[in-house]
Amino acid sequence: MSRFVDTLLDTARARGDVKGITTGEPKEPVRHTWGQVHERALRMAGALAAGGLAKNGAVAVLAAEPVDIAPAIQAVWLAGGSVTMLHQPTARTDLAEWAHDTVRVLTMIDSKLVLLGAPFDQLAPLLDEHGIGYLRLEDLAAGAPLATVVEVDEDATALLQLTSGSTAEPKAVRITHGNLHSNLSAMVEMAELDVDNDVMVSWLPLFHDMGMVGFLTVPMTFGLELVKVTPVEFLNGPLIWADLISRHRGTITAAPNFAYALLGRRLSGVDDDARYDLSSLRIALNGAEPIDEKAVRSFTDQGARFGLHAECVFPAYGMAEATLAVSFAPLFTGLTLDCVEADKLESENLAVPAESGRAFAVLGKPLPGIEARIVSSSGEVLGEREVGEIRLRGSAVTPGYLTVDGPVPTQDTDGWLATGDIGYTVDGQIVICGRRKDVIILGGRNIYPTDIERAATSVEGVRAGNAVAVRIDAGSRRERFAVVVESRLAEDESAVKVLRKDVAARVFETVNARPVAVVVLKPGSLPKTPSGKLRRAAAGEQVAATVKASES
Q: How far apart, in Å, are the Cα atoms of 91 and each of 88, 119, 472?
């Protein structure tokens, strides 16, 4: 029997009328208790069962509003199925291509059913055209309540988390009920969540693991108060984030690094120090992409004017393959940096402490139920401050992927998952240097793209968080790198000429290597994942083709 579903049920029965979810901010806020969400989920689950959903059947969900998604995913779990949140089309999406990719995803997960909710219910004719079966969420809610919850085992699939990036070659991380229960319980313990007093505030997308698992499944399963808006509402006005924390006395929030940099910039333009009150915030989790000290400092410095405590910054390491969270920094310690000698790091794979050099965020010890170790390229287990690939093992680690070519295991014979992340440990705490596939190798030196990108974004005129270092001729003797940046000056030829020179100089000054090219693009040009992270590989393909064409 699933301990995860048992906990959901216990919460609904014992605390269903105590805490809940507020949605519709800022225009039409409405609050539903978790008990009301559960009652609606039971009706939806009854309709799914009556409609023929089999035990362990896969169900895809395409909706934007948290008030609709929460009961829908719970309904699928109550009916014994697994949930897949589909990537959402945007205004710039080619709908015919999106439909083709969606069909591939549904085939991959063996699902013949999409639960369709606003505003994507307008896509119903497109789904009909491509033979994609669907049910409208508003219709499901009218069903008779499920009489008996369908029992599933711990190793049954609960969530198929689509990996970030293009869905042209889709892949889903298979998260079991056991995985979910293990990771959710560990996060509650290590973050010291207070179900009676904590208030979670989030705008994170629910098709991404941080939003889906951390800021919907956790509060719904354990009964915490949640204020949830959509990413569109945040991007249309980032200060809504500060406003919601202030008005709802939010204690816990989370976001990727770029969002804290964005909020810091917007707060700097607020003249009235009494407009927001961020003093209630005790955890501001920073994860999903490399943590930049400059971005964190912008957030904490500007937030201090509104009562923000710098120690609320909560660095974390996570990945969908570990359900969500791998490690948390110690509570109330803020951002801790480990500064190491650049030469030793690049040439000897050693993180030797130094007063100046490369600085990396310390991300805490692995959560309960997860083991971590650092391994060399030859498979040797390394010691502290020796740099290698991070490998994980434990009850939260996925047993495998689903791909278009079938299931693919993620663990070796001893249960270890190779993460592809390069890092080291300090006093048992994890430090990440970068992704193995992104490391640029020049003359025997390992140059990490984040160092190049931070140097580039420090140049005036480059949009913060919108610089990418890409490998060219990777793995060959001619391996090089280029830098791609976004700038509002992109259409000013003379300004672009100066910007390219300044970026190249700043990068050389930082990593003692010069880019073969600096490409300046208009804002919004860099390829990004559905969750807003930059896609180095896609940018690299574009730039490599341009550079090679210019050399021919």
A: 10, 12, 32
In a domain, 230, yes or no: no
**Angle in degrees, CA 438, 442, 446, rounded to 5:** 50
Residues with Cβ < 8 Å from 447, sequence gap 6 or more? 346, 439, 440, 441, 481, 511, 513
* Amino acid letter, residue 207: F
Residue 159 has pLDDT above 90, yes or no: yes
Q: How many CB atoms lie within 10 A of CB 232?
A: 13
DSSP 217: I
11 and 30 assigned to the same domain: yes
Q: What are phi and psi of 196, to 5 degrees?
A: -85, -30
For 367, which DSSP code? Answer: P
Q: Which helix (H) or strand (E) holds 21?
A: strand 20-23
For the chain, helix (H) and strand (E) counts, in that order, are 17, 28
Domain range for 16 is 3-195+206-212
Instruction: Give the DSSP letter string of 313-353.
Output: EEEEEE-GGGSSEEEEPPTT----EEEE-HHHHHHH-B--B
Is the pLDDT reported for residue 168 higher than 70? no
Q: Are residues 273 and 188 in the same domain?
A: no
Nearest in space to 424 (alpha carbons), one of 389, 463, 454, 380: 389
Q: Is residue 222 part of a domain?
A: no
**What CATH code is carried by the domain that includes residue 175?**
3.40.50.12780
> Domain holding 501: CATH number?
3.30.300.30
- Do you know the residue count of the chain? 552
Q: Among residues 152, 199, 159, 153, which one has the least CA distance to residue 183?
A: 159
**pLDDT (tens digit per residue) in 411-442:** 999 999 999 999 999 999 999 998 888 888 88
Number of neighbours of residue 194 by Cβ within 10 angstroms:
13
171-193 confidence digits (pLDDT tens): 999 999 999 999 999 999 999 99
d(CA 249, CA 281): 8
**160, 72: one domain:** yes
Whole-prediction pTM: 0.89
Q: Are 446 and 306 within one domain?
A: no
Distance in angstroms (rounded) separating the CA atoms of residues 266 and 251: 21
d(CA 47, CA 549): 57
How far apart CA 73 and CA 155 sit, in angstroms, is 18
**Phi and psi at residue 282, to the nearest 5°:** -110, -20
Number of independent structural domains in the chain: 3
Domain identity same for 320 and 399: yes
Asked if 467 and 504 touch (Cβ cutoff 8 Å), the reply is no
Spatial distance between the Cα atoms of 81 and 53, rounded to a whole number of angstroms: 8
Burial per residue of 38-67, b for 16 or more beta-carbon CB atoms within 10 angstroms, e otherwise: bbbbbbbbbbbbeeebeeebbbbbbbbbbb
